[in-house]
């Protein structure tokens, strides 16, 4: 009998200690979950959208239920033990009555019974434990669950990459780096003009690779740029230029219009058949001094003596003379200066890059001081009059009454001036600026390693707190 009693005693102690251990473990896990959830090693307890069923709501619910059950079981065992002691002890100071037996039975199975026992029960310990049980089962779980909320967590990392090649490398091709007898076009500038005139998007640069949907990746660079600044002007077409019939025998059959940037850079419009209704020239930078000879205009080899100066574009046109779409009473002119320097380019994720025109910084160095091949490119080579004829902004347009109009054989002119040369001076000026911006952005996309690149990755996650 003594062995059996000892065994029962040890079993009772084991289960009591086990219930106490489970209760303490639940308290510790709940405390760790709210104070340092990452320490538990489960990402789903921290990140809201993690693909896992083990979330804080689930864990709190399970731990609260386990805590309540363990507490109830332990308290019930204590109550049962107390009951049997009072039943089996003849000298009990508080003998068990029928009413107390009923209250103890209700206390062990019902929260309402525990409330009633607080008012009518005899055991002070059971009254206190009843209050704790009610608090554990009815309050702890909801309070813990209400403490779980969500917030945005933002992690930002940045990296800076210096140019690995010469900054002008993306602008250089096998066609524009040598003279090739004056026969080669500058393909990058032609391509940019055609694409920009037709509102095509700039190619996306191969940056911000291997990013997940929650990562906002932005690249900001300082890139080599050719920058156009254009001034539009209009004046009345009093001499009926660009018409197949001149105003009269005393009227001039042509008129010259000259650049304010390089006064020697002039174009003419004519009347008579076939009339010249649009004329564009690409010329030198303001430092070049022209020399007129019997062979034409030549420029001194001392060109490009002003830092950042590159070239000049000047054009004049009259619209609406062929198809009556534009305004034939207005002569439009555009005067553009081209400079070289660097500019800020930005790209966000897989969106096309963009630039800030306000960020352009003209170069402080002469072309002759560059050690790269850009000093031989010039995009427009001025020292040979034949070379400038291969630039996109060098064309003369005429039309005749039979329907022949060479604007339709000159894609850059057609896109720039529009149908029947109906685009106004303001539109064309801004379009030329956009065309060179497009060329700069395309060069960035072609050779990211030729720019100073700062990549910023911003990871936004919904986290529990």
TrEMBL record:
It comes from the Eukaryota. Keywords: Membrane, Transmembrane, Transmembrane helix. The chain crosses the membrane at residues 12-34, 54-76, 124-145. This is Transmembrane protein. It comes from Immersiella caudata.
